[in-house]
Amino acid sequence: MSGKKILCCGILRHELEHLLGEQNTDITYIDAALHVDLDKLAQSVTENLRGIAGINIPLIIGNQCHPEIEQIAAEHGGRVIQAKSCIEMLLGEKMAELDAEAKTFYLTSGWLENWRKIFMEGLGWDAVDARQNFGYYDRILLLDTGIVPIDDMNLLEFYDYAQVPVETIPVDLDNLRKLLEQLLNG
Questions:
Q1: Axis crossing angle, helix 174-185 with helix 13-20, rounded to the nearest 10
Q2: Residue 132 CB: number of other CB atoms within 10 A?
Q3: What residues pair up with 75 in beta bridges, in sequence order?
Q4: Which of 35, 47, 55, 105 has its CA 20 to 30 A from that of 119?
Q5: What angle, 0 to 180 degrees and rounded to 10, lies between the N-to-C axes of helices 152-162 and 127-134?
Q6: b/e per residue 91-110 (b: at least 16 CB within 10 A)
Q7: Where would I find the DUF1638 domain in this sequence (predicted)?
């Protein structure tokens, strides 16, 4: 996996850097909050792929984060990881099991770090909007990979904003590692 150029959503920065460690990779991260504006997301992916200027550039962005992400990637020399979202990249098949238990909204440490940019700035949600939108969910699960310490104050502020119980569950990086190897070696 050495000498690769990669384009990745900033949500997975910590996990990707942990998995790739000291390997010779050139990773470009796009702003995690772009998910709320499909035009800006497409523009950023396109510009970054052009800037990388290569063939078969691995793109670590869920294939459902933008309805045309695979087409955009293919047109500009990229290949998209085979997962719907960063959550599915981490959970794999376990996601269906967790979804069957309750209506669940998922967070990663990257989402927790960026929640204000995503929901307040990007979507423009005030506290009432947040409660209306998050009110659909029975719970919020924070996927803790153990890589980034959870900022308890930030988590409490997010709970206060969303008003939905937040549970933290440990997750390993096995599924993301497998998907990453498939993408980089494919």
A1: 70
A2: 10
A3: none
A4: 47
A5: 80
A6: bbeebeebeeeeebbbbbbb
A7: 30-180
SS3 label, residue 87: helix
Reported for 35-42, long-range contacts at CB under 8 A and 24+ positions apart, including other chains, are 35/9, 35/65, 35/118, 35/122, 36/118, 36/122, 36/123, 37/122, 38/66, 38/67, 41/65, 41/66, 42/66, 42/68, 42/69, 42/72
Q: Could you list the pLDDT tens digit for every one of the 186 residues in the chain?
A: 446 889 999 999 999 999 998 787 888 999 988 989 999 999 999 999 988 877 788 989 998 899 999 999 999 888 999 999 999 999 999 999 999 999 999 999 999 999 999 999 999 999 999 999 999 999 999 999 999 999 999 999 999 999 999 999 999 999 999 999 999 887
Where would I find the H helices in 5-151? 13-20, 38-52, 69-75, 86-91, 94-101, 109-115, 127-134
The structural domains of the chain, ordered by start, are 4-85+174-185 (3.40.50.11230), 88-170 (no CATH)
The answer to whether the beta carbons of residues 51 and 6 sit under 8 Å apart is no
Encoded tokens for 74? 């293919």
3-state secondary structure of 136: coil
Helix (H) or strand (E) holding 159: helix 152-162
